[in-house]
Amino acid sequence: MSNPHDLVRFGWNESVSHAFSTLDLEHCEPGRIVRVDRGECDVVTASGQIRAHTGAHSVCTGDWVTVRDSAVTDVLPRRSAIVRASASIRSESQVLAANVDTVVIAAALDTDVDLGRIERFLALAWESGAMPVVVLTKADATLDVSHTLADVAAIAPGATVLAVSARTGDGLDVLVAAVDGTVALVGQSGAGKSTLANALLGEDLFATGQVRGGDHKGRHVTAHRELVPLPGGGTLIDTPGLRGVGLWDAADGIGRAFSEIDVLAEQCRFGDCNHAAEPGCAVREAVERDELPQRRLDSYRKLQRENEWMAARTDARLQAERTRQVKVLSRSLKEHYRNR
């Protein structure tokens, strides 16, 4: 096997080394997926980058894998993963990035900052197992940065919130100090993720584009999730802009994103309080005392309902699939006995 220390720039550490030590590497080589595209992936190994077939393996950018003869042979268990509900009509999940340490949530200051969308991204990030950092980009485009910073900090308990201008460089040093390990950039199209990524990398590696003047929506310039080394250590994954962020099994993430509501809920008279019209609801009382914004509670309940609906929909899909399999087996058995 080639020297694995050549992979340090791509995140190799003692933990990764220990995980690979449990595998038989006599006829294969460890590596990390830096890009996935239609059944194939780019894998960086100690001997260089190769193009490999994924085969039956479900892989994504950031996965640690073994490869042999230009094919993925094994995928290491993920220690963290950013997962959202698939945009398709089927009840499926989509892994955006794996083995991530920091999730940078980008929101642009050159338009109205959507607090509800940031809360949704925060739930996604907390659920992944990584540490979220909210970055308000294009700080040079507004004079009232402090007010928006305070608003966002109020809805992001436990997360770092800062303002950055990739154009002027203001705040970049603070961001570099706040992130660690493998960093995934997420956010809506037009949030300036690729521009921010290029600023962190010190070169124009990712394509950037202008937002539309009418609605300030961005174009999907980044088409793939790609992992690249950062010059000061660590790695970066730039992701395509997300117009929709459906939650997938994110109860814990919602709880972390709205931790102050969960603390209040412990004081409710009923353990299964829905914080609607139940007597003795500590959450509603906090709203009435203006200690908790009504918008914050509405957002919390909306994400909870969505997560519960998706869980129920997934269970229904799995039950339907089991029923279909039983019917197929039954028909096969009948055909077998009929033709004996």
Automatic annotation (TrEMBL):
Chief localisation class: cytoplasm
GO cellular component terms, semicolon-separated: cytoplasm
Binding residues annotated for Zn(2+), in chain numbering: 268, 273, 275, 281
InterPro entries in UniProt: G_CP_dom, P-loop_NTPase, Ribosome_biogen_GTPase_RsgA, RsgA_GTPase_dom
Transmembrane segments: none
Known cofactor(s): Zn(2+)
Keyword Signal attached: no
Keyword Phosphoprotein: no
Residues that coordinate or bind GTP: 137-140, 187-195
Pfam families: RsgA_GTPase (PF03193)
PROSITE patterns to which the protein is assigned, alphabetical: ENGC_GTPASE, G_CP
Localization terms from the record: Cytoplasm
Record's keyword terms, sorted: Cytoplasm, GTP-binding, Hydrolase, Metal-binding, Nucleotide-binding, Ribosome biogenesis, RNA-binding, rRNA-binding, Zinc
Stored HAMAP family: GTPase_RsgA
Function description: One of several proteins that assist in the late maturation steps of the functional core of the 30S ribosomal subunit. Helps release RbfA from mature subunits. May play a role in the assembly of ribosomal proteins into the subunit. Circularly permuted GTPase that catalyzes slow GTP hydrolysis, GTPase activity is stimulated by the 30S ribosomal subunit.
Protein name: Small ribosomal subunit biogenesis GTPase RsgA
